[in-house]
Amino acid sequence: MTLRHALTLVALLLFFASGAMADGFDLTATSTAGDTTSLNISLVLTGSLSGTPGVYDITGITGTVNGVNVTSALPGAGTILDSPVVNGWYIEYDNLLNLSAPYFDLYGLGFQLANGTYANLYYNGYDLYAQLGDNPPFQEVVTVTSLVDPPPPSVPEPGTLGLLSVGLLALGALVARKQVVLTASR
After folding, report:
1. What ranges make up the beta strands (E) of 23-124?
2. Is residue 105 within a helix (H) or strand (E), and if so which, with residue range?
């Protein structure tokens, strides 16, 4: 392997490592005036581009709904799935976030709260709803008051560091091998 090949390999590893980084979003939403229940939703979403520009597969959710912690995103980003059945009811979701309003599709963003409640945010074609699993699940019209793409973290993700390390080790091995060859030929 020549030095040129090693440098090309390192460049390719770094290129693919940059695509491995997840994106994060801060989302806040509140009930629309006139609804019977007051909702305050504050979420941090993580995900990656779905293949459609501006649309993300959300794989991680933290935050609160009316002070109750969100424990996890429901699995299956980009695929329409049902939450577990509770009292004969379930919530459909696909965990897609579209950066343009209304932000969600008919299936929405599924997650679970620390008290065991399944929830989602979805758009029915007219309004953006928050749905919380009760018997039956109640739905509340909400308004997204903020969707912010925070600055990237200052520490690279472990996958990025791993790829960089492999590339640097390969480059170091190549330089060491070249030194051995040069020494032997003298």
Report:
1. 23-31, 40-49, 55-65, 68-73, 81-82, 92-93, 96-98, 109-113, 118-123
2. none
Q: Are 95 and 110 in contact (CB under 8 A)?
A: yes
Contact status, residue 93 vs residue 109, Cβ threshold 8 Å: yes
CA distance 153 to 135: 41
Specify whether the CB–CB gap between 141 and 31 falls below 8 A. yes
The residues with which 120 forms a beta bridge, in sequence order, are 110, 131
CA distance 162 to 128: 41
Q: What are phi and psi of 19, to 5 degrees?
A: -75, -15
* 67-71 contacts, C-beta under 8 A, 24 or more apart: 67/40, 68/113, 68/114, 68/115, 68/117, 69/113, 69/114, 70/43, 70/111, 70/112, 70/113, 70/114, 71/111, 71/112, 71/113, 71/114
pTM recorded for the entire structure = 0.66
Q: What is the pLDDT of residues 131-174, one digit of tens each?
A: 887 666 677 888 888 888 765 555 666 677 677 777 778 777 77
Query: What's the confidence (pLDDT) of residue 41?
Result: 92
Structure tokens at 35: 């609804």
Domain ranges of the chain: 3-17+154-185, 22-148
